[in-house]
Fold this sequence. Notes:
This protein is α/β, with parallel strands linked by helices and 498 residues long. The chain folds into two domains: 15-219, Chloramphenicol acetyltransferase-like domain (Chloramphenicol Acetyltransferase), CATH 3.30.559; 222-496, Chloramphenicol Acetyltransferase (2-Layer Sandwich), CATH 3.30.559. Helix content is 36%, strand content 26%. Strand 7 and strand 8 (107-112) form a beta hairpin. Helix 2 (80-93) crosses helix 6 and helix 11 packs across helix 12 (366-383). The longest helix has 20 residues, at 477-496.
Amino acid sequence: MLATRFGRLLRPCRLVISSSNKTKFSSGSGTQSHEVENGREFKWLWPAYREEEMFKAAHDIGCKSLIVCYRFNTVKPLDPGHVEQALRHFQRKVPNCRGFFKERDGKLWVCEDPNPDVDFECLEGAESSAIINEHINKPFRGDRSPTWKARLVPVPADAPCAMPEIQAAFPHQYDLVFMPHHSFMDGITIALSTGKLVGLLNDLIAGRPVNDEPFGVYLNNEEIGKIDEGIAKDLEKEPEKLESAKQEILACDTPPILCKAFPPPGGKPATKFVNQIINQKSLASFTAKCKANGVTFNSGMEAVINTAIIEMVREAGVEGESHHMSINLATDLRRYMKRRPLPIYGLHVRPTVHRIETPFDVRDNFWDYTRKFHQRLSVLLKSGDALQQTVVREMTLPQLPPVEYHAAGPKPLRDYGLTNVGDLTPIMPGVGEHLQQTSVSMFGCTHFFGFPMFHQIYSFRGHMPYTIGYDTSYISKETAGALMDRIVTLMHDLGTSP
């Protein structure tokens, strides 16, 4: 099949690699049953829970998607057949890559296909940025497998490399654009599972055998649901505490101050990105300053973002002494689940909102502000209040069904959203004798998420690829770019100041 993309005639390389190996199901559900439909076997796993339903409804209309781009440098030109073969092994070893949705007795269920196709193309002459922009706002149905896509893009040899010291021995460059359905894979799952890709591909190039042992166990939210039930029972006994918690949540619903200073452009909601690679020196110095002041890198970065926003709006003419920043965090629920022998895969994140008063002159006392910020955030996450927020919302506030919620086009009630998956290097080493991974970039769709921009924080092999996704109906390209520049400058200045 011929496809014209990005101004050139491209011939996608679509290979089907068959396997005689039986798939090993490793989903952690007690409700599984097998069924055959249209000659294909599949397995019922569990009734979809709200977080899964929300992402499905969002993906159906083209929002809340997540795309990851990996840069591979190789000793010799990469054979696309090896890549698809690696992806076929990957799909067998990552059970949620075989997931899809299907209705059963009027209820949406998560199902598993034992041997789904692989949606893979090699696109000569394409650009990974164009592929990302093409798919980030595109609907992605989850009611049939496969529920993920991959695109391999050869990159010119003279294109910039984040690790030039490696490029001499690994001169051939490729981008692998990975596009999963977010209902089946959260950011932690993506990092944990795709961190194995370099090893798989390296073994295939070397001619070594690959076993079918799973990389992780695919679990539903049963364990978290039981914790929720306990929280709800306790709150029912203390109506005053329930009402107080409700008011705390409602107090976080505030229009983004950046939109007050820089009027929204309007138009149809869509997501675009600005991204920057924070160099090793700035990253190391700022990390050291965070440690010296007794705060995590995450708290330091949130404080930098808050400072950057406050300074921009103050310089734009917004008056006042302070603003209560309202921040949406993607909280990893695994911290509240019991450990398993294998990593827990699936969708195990929830939004946690917190707010902090940020003075307009916050830079003058930045580290004092950051320590206070860090202490409050640590208490929120360690106390279980992050789980309580969801329970309180469901007990006291109207809950629209997922389809209606997204059809209504939720308005931003937070200053921004943020996710931090930490240093990826231990789980994504990216080192092999035939290829090395030299960078990774994550792109999260922002519109209809309830905030105008989304900051994605992580580091990889001493670098920090930093992406801000912004809703084009609320934030302009110029404003997003200016904010990124301000954040990068603040990181350098605060990390190197006495």
